[in-house]
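Meet my pick.
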Amino acid sequence: MKKYSNFTIFCLLLTLFFSSCSTLPTQDNSEASSSSEMSGNVIDCLITSGTTFVITADNKLWVSGNNNHGQLGLSDIYRQTNNFILLFDNVAKVFSRGMNGTYILKKDGTLWATGENECGELGIGHYISQSCYIKIAENVSNAFFGNHCTFIIKNDGGLWGTGFNDCGSLGISED
């Protein structure tokens, strides 16, 4: 029997509590590993509306839960998973915009995103939402998210912003 840390169990219980438990069928993903193969100590956990992200000490990102806005990046918005599956290796940090989108900062400084993009918050040159991860930036040291906007701090200290410029929140004149 697989031993899980108390923190992992806590994350699982919170996911069950907040999950909407959609009745849509879960499709098999032959490339993904199941939770029975999750190894390593949990070092970080992010829980959003019915979705859980777990980073283990070996820098692997495991996901479970709701995908109604493409926030898991499982290729379609109808797919959800009731078991943790391996999504990425070499993960430094995972960020969320609530139930609408997810960003993954990898150890190599690349930033990956998926989810809602109605205001251009993914910074990919159009307003089409994404249901699988797309690389949106390189040489990233950190990222921050607001109401339909994204800010990225690059390794050289530069600040980049994209998305909804409500009241000039991106620091760009509307003239």
Summary: The helical segments are 6-18. Residues 6-32 have pLDDT under 50 and may be disordered.
